[in-house]
Write a structure and sequence with these properties.
heterodimer, A: 289 residues, Uridine Diphospho-n-acetylenolpyruvylglucosamine Reductase, domain 2, Uridine Diphospho-n-acetylenolpyruvylglucosamine Reductase, domain 3, Enolase-like, domain 1, 3 domains, 11 helices, B: 178 residues, alpha+beta, Ubiquitin-like (UB roll), DNA polymerase, domain 1, 38% helix, globular
Chain lengths: 289, 178
Amino acid sequence: MQAHSFEYVRPATVAQTVQILGEKGGRAKVLAGGQSLIPVLKLRLANPQVLVDISRLPGLAFIQERGGRLRIGALSRHRDFEESKLVRDKYPILADVAASLGDPQVRNLGTIGGALAHADPASDWGTALLVFETELIAKGPKGTRTIPIDGFFKDPFTTALRPSELLTEILLPKSEPGNGGAYLKLKRKTGDFATVGVAVQIGLDPKRNVTRIRLALAAAGPTPMRAVKAEQALVGKRAGPTAFAEAARIAAEEGKPEADLRGSTEYKRAMIEVFTRRALETAAGRTGR
Amino acid sequence: MAKARRTARAKTMGMARENGGHSITLTVNGQSYTRVTEPRVLLVDFLRDDLRLTGTHVGCDTSHCGACTVLLDGRAVKSCTVLAVQAEGRAVTTIEGLAQHGRLHPIQEAFKEHHGLQCGFCTPGVVLAALELLRADHAPTEERIRTAISGNICRCTGYQNIVDSVAAAGERMKSGKW
């Protein structure tokens, strides 16, 4: 199907972009890699008056450690994470996410910022970033704002970003010794959304006791969500099959998956349990402890 | 289907002017083209309808099947999920750009020899996806080949001969610049 007619602009700077977004309000849509937005336009689920192409804005595609943080430019493509040595060595959970997304062609164009702003309930990036104290940097007509990830996802396809704001950067705490993460996704086939997805970031002391834990689920509610009770059940416990099985059981209860063509609620809960256990095992294995 | 698509576009051409029909210049298979197009026109439709390069196929039109795969600045993309205006100033490679001076590209030769196609509908897309891989790695593992073509659906061959063809093409591409 063909999209409704729209105007197309390609501003040269972030300042110009923000100005256009401010003038157009909710009638504009930001186009980054287009791998979610263009299908949505073709289905006429969104009918913006103006498409603001930010894909060529300079200085927004980077993945680097600076000032004690991992700083990610919003225009970094999924492919960039697969190819980044820094990511593969120190943040393998981000490589897990990138490799699980779409297919090679989609990963060549799609961006992390676009995926976050799109805010699909099954968002792989959204789920994985919930297991860090992630901060999102948004630029708007009134200046720059920092949005914690925990308050970012409001509803399906709805975030804390205002229509006039542009997501420019994603900040993660720097990887520390004794910490490890993993993202595991169950999908029916390449290119499909998650039937369930589980992200884990775990910190272990030298005796393998859990010092910090964050656990999040994709496709288990209206937005990517943390499984807080499962987290609480793990703090202070010795990492291993007993603790992981118990946490996985709790996570399956906390998730609120809806039955759809990918499976019944019961099936999805069972899969949350299995994938939570496996993600905990993988993440613990990556702590080096 | 193609006719219906062209008709749908013809009906809306009036709106192109209303929305300031964009003049875009891009390079396709080494040749520069300048055309006026409506912003909502997909790259695959631009290639097929405006440039009459019909080797790039529309299979599903929903970003799933990969038949419309082309290279955009050397990277495989699904041209049903790219706007023509996004390709402005960029270099596109389609299946028509592979054979040189009447001689098939090594990937095309390998597909012919190893029976990498039956009906051929998916082949242009598979070949372009394989080309991106083989330019980076002449001797990819089977796993890498299967990952590289995981966004391309074939309903005839069952993939084994496609994988064999891609592996054989890598061998052939070791010499020369492809």
